[in-house]
Each structure stands twice: as C-alpha cells, then as structure tokens.
Request: fold
Amino acid sequence: MSERPSLWWIDWRLSRGPLVQETIGRFLFFCLLGFALLSLLLSGGVSRILADRYAITAMLRAEVPSSEGEGLARKAAALPPVRSATYRDPEAAWEEFLRAYPGLGPVRGAGENPLPGYIEIRIRPDRLTGADVDLVVSSLRSVPLIEHVLAGEVWLPRLLRAGRLASRACWGIFGAFLACFFLVGRLQERARAVALAGDFSFLAERGVPSGRLAFFRAAGAAVSGFLLAAAGTAAGGGALFLFLRMFPFLEGVVGPPSDLLLPRTVAAAALFSCGAALLSAAASVLGWRAARPGRK
Amino acid sequence: MIEGFRLGVFSRGTTLWDGLDFAFGDAAAWFVTGPPSSGKTLLLSILRGERRPDAGDVVVSGESLYRGNAALARAWRASCGHVPEQTIADARLTVGDLFRRSALAGGGVRESERKYRTDRLLEMVGLPGALGWRVAELSISERGRACLAAELLRGPKVLFCDCLVAGAGVLFWEMLWGLFRALAREGNTVILAERRIPERWALAAGNPEPVGPFRVYRLPDPAAEVKGEPG
Reply:
C-alpha cells in the first residue's frame, strides 16, 4: 500500500450513478452554451447583420474614367476596415436608379447620363465602429476624384449604439446562462457533498486531511469541467456547422461555417473551456464548504 | 504502546470521568468494559485521536496525539481501523462499497488484490457472497461483521471496535475470539469496548484492571494459553 491514498476522481469512486447523470446533464448544457458562444463569436452579436446592411457610397466626379474608378476601388478595398469595395460605372448606376425608381427614365432626356459612377464600400463586421468608419470616410474624402462620400454620419452613431446594446444584451443572456450553470453546479456539488458526507467523515477519521479531499474534488471538477466544456463546445460547433450548411441564409446573420476553424474562434472556445473549468472548481469548493465533514 | 495520562472528559454539563490512566501494550487484544453511558465510545474516539480530551493527553509510541505534530496524529489515524457501533450513515451503501471506501482510505490497493481479499475476509466473518447486499438490509450482527471485514482490508496496525462482540451475537464469538488473537499474534493491537465481556473470555483473561468506571482486560495470546499462563 502506498502511504497516501489517491483521491483523484474520489466522487466517481464513491458515487457513480448520480455523477453520471450530472455529467450527462452538464455535457448537454455545454453543447447548448457552445452553440450559443460560437454563434455569438461568429456573428459578433448583431455586428454581422449591421455590416451586411451598411455601406459607404463614394460618388466619383463626372469626368472620372472607369479605369481610374476601378483603380480607386482597389485602393479602397486595401484599407484595413474594408471588407469589399465595388466600382459601379455611370451606366450601371443609372440602371440601379431606374430599378429603384421606375418611371423616372425621361429624366435622362436627350441621352446624357445624369449620374456619375460610384464606389460601394462595405465594412468588415468586426471593424464596424465609428472610428473605423471615420477612417475610411476621411481617406476617401481626401481623394480629389471623389466628389461626395455618403456614410450616413447623422444616423450611424445611433445605429452603432443600438447595435452595441443589442450585442451586450446577447452576451448578457449568455452570461446569465453561464451564471445558471455555476449556481446549479454549486447546488449539485453541495448535494453530492452532503450525500457523501459519511464517506468523507470516514476518510477524515482515517487520517485523510479534509483539505486534500477538497482539493482533489475541486481538481477533478476542474478537469472534468474543462473536458466537458471542450467536448460540448465541439459538439455545439458541429451542430452550428450543419445548421449553416443546411440553411445558407443564416450565414448573413451568423457568418460562414469556415469561420468556425479560425484560430481566434478556437482560442475563444479554449478560453471558454478554461473558464468552465474554473467555475466547476469554484462550485466544487463552495459546495464542499457548505457540507464539509464536521458540520453535523 | 498507547497510553492515556490523566484523561478527563466533561460532557452533558458534568464531568464524566477524570484522571484516568490507560496503557495498552502493542501486539495484544484489549477488552474495555463499562456500564451504559460510561463513555466507552468517547474513550475510543479519544484514543483514536478524533476527540481531544478535556484533560490529560494520549501518547502513542512516545508522541503526544493532541499536543504534538498534526501530521503524526494523521499518520496515527491512518494506521487505525475503527468498527463503530452505529452505521446509520452507511445505510445507502452496499457491502462492496464499504470495501471500496476502505481501500480508498488505505490507498493504492490494486483492484484484483482488493477483490481477492474482500472475498476471503467476507468468508472469514461469515458473510460469503454478501458483496452486493445493501447495508440497510443487514442485521446488526451482519453490519458489524461487514464493517470489521472492510476495516481489515487495509490491514490496520490498531483496531478499535465499539460494541462489536455484543452486536455480532454469541454464534460469532468463537470466530471473533480467534480473529482478535490472530491479529495480536501478527503484531497488531485490538481494543474492544463492550458493556460486558463474554464469561469464557473473562475467565481466560484473568483479573481485569479497574480504571474509573471501566474494567480493562488483556486477552491471552495463544502461546500463553497453551502454557496455561494468565494473559
């Protein structure tokens, strides 16, 4: 016999049935949380919806040739916050105008196109902020070939504020679910510690320090919490991937499935698993303190 | 050697006993009798290092349990086995769980070894095939014997039994008699607390030493018995 008993997975050794049920419940909950987390990470709350609908329009001067307009669009596309910059020549602009306002064809009169060419610039969802929009707008305004830049400066701050609030609300709901996990986990740990109080007293009476018991229980909870969160997030990610493949229109809201494998997404999932491990360990310690041996 | 010096206990608003001296030599089976409510269970918990006496001290192999190093006291508790009189908290467990838990307290018992020793110990205490039985469904006698077997799994150096003999019933006295003396022969110390000692055991043990409300007997070891010497 070794001098010190191994107390790893002590709850598993003492009470397997209830622990299996708890583990299954936690895994399913982590699947749900993982799905929500990855959806939020990819969509950036409501940023992707806003970025999909917001565009900066740079009206070119009438005399700007198409080749220069296209060159300008390529330069605009190279700006860091810009997702895409598309040049529309005067004819394409006129056709779009007629589609938007049918019946206004006679305005063209004798055949001269009254509309100039323009560049439509879309911002990356993660860079849709006032500062980045200002950066793009100021860069465009400094170009002599551009006559006007329409960026909705009047209503954009309100829209961005509303977007920020909506994103915070989404993350708040996610945080509330995480807090629920912590509270339920603490109650489960406490109930298990109470149920196993006799066993822990038995071990304490036979020279096993209570501190070691608590430490190994918390360590076991942390390891299992990390593994469950990682597995749950992976399963949630798989479900999200299938959803996005089955319903492509969701890509406009959530984002492309390929983003699930971006390093930052994987890093965020790993961070989430670490957080779940810490919460599990904290729930274990608090549950233990509420029902530790010696409290009769 | 387990020694209690000037032990005193204040309980239920009064002094239960005070100034008691005990000396339990190694490799022997000891029998402590006392009337109901005399503090036998309390005495065992004090000797095990579980309950600090209100007066006096317990010294094990020259080290104080309560005034010395806490690690030594823990090591002492780890070397002890304890069969309690009440096992209400274990009612939800099976006999197999008792062994699993005992192995956990001992640490490092291999699964195959545990199963082998469990079967042999259960057979020895008259409970063959009882591994899956629920403790709640056992009689007082069966519970005591199952707990005893589970404690023996760890091979404790010192075994404390609280009212085990009375609970086990007359049918198992012979088995226990042989077991305790065999343990003592192998160098272990057994301390039993009971209300009364079986008559045959008392005759074999000879005159007890009166200590406060208790009578302390030393059961004769087999070699001494063969020679006809007192214990």
Remarks:
- The beta strands of chain B are 2-11, 14-24, 29-33, 55-60, 63-64, 80-83, 158-162, 189-194, 209-211, 214-219.
- The CA atoms of residues 210 and 216 of chain B lie 6 Å apart.
